[in-house]
Amino acid sequence: MSDMSDMGDEDMTEQQRAVVVTGAGTGIGRATARAFAAEGARVLAVGRRPGPLAETASTHPGLIEPLVADVTGPDAPERIVGAALERYGRLDVLVNNAGIVQGGQGLGGYHRAGIEELLSVNLVAPVLLGQAALPALADSRGVVVNVSTAVGQRGWPSNAVYAASKAALETVTRSWAVELAPRGVRVVAVAPGAIDTPIGDHAGYGPGQQAAVRSWQIAHTPLGRIGRPEEVAWAITRLAAPQASFVTGVVLSVDGGALVG
Fold it and tell me: What distance in Å separates the CA atoms of residue 103 and residue 117, rounded to the nearest whole number?
């Protein structure tokens, strides 16, 4: 017996999807923007620095368009969604990838401003952007992909607040999956492990500290290596694909086995 609801997903594959990727200037965001563009999607690449965004877009001119914006800005959600709708007339996929890690500190090293900044980028911004995008995503029966972290599912003593912010994003993912299902919107997440990105540089880690972190990560990753941004981008595009139309509420680990090792 056939399910007539499948017809909508088949129709979607014939259309050029519109995708928003935040934190698209480097790392996982850059790889994700390029992966969607390679499939023929039109991608709004959002980030704070015009130079890296231009580099992201350089491989797929006409398909990836940069938008310089700070996701924590008071008008950022409406501005980002508005730009996507103005340029593409629709929104099919929102990838909440922008995130920050602060320099490792134990409980004695936190300060209010740092905690508030971390939560603002990693949790508040995705929630408000998802809220702004909801009407357009409901119209397209679209997908939200939140980018979490493998350490959100286990203890990370030196970066507890970072891990907690990502664990909260996973809870948001599961909750939205149930809440938005009646509107045809799927919500999923990926939880990367140790990936070769510049996030350590952005956190202010020095070369020695980064080397020590990488050594520890490899030792605790059963596959014995650091992952590539393209491997996470593959997972994001597969979860967002029309063929994944019965998948929602999942958090997929892309961590070389670190969570179960």
Answer: 13
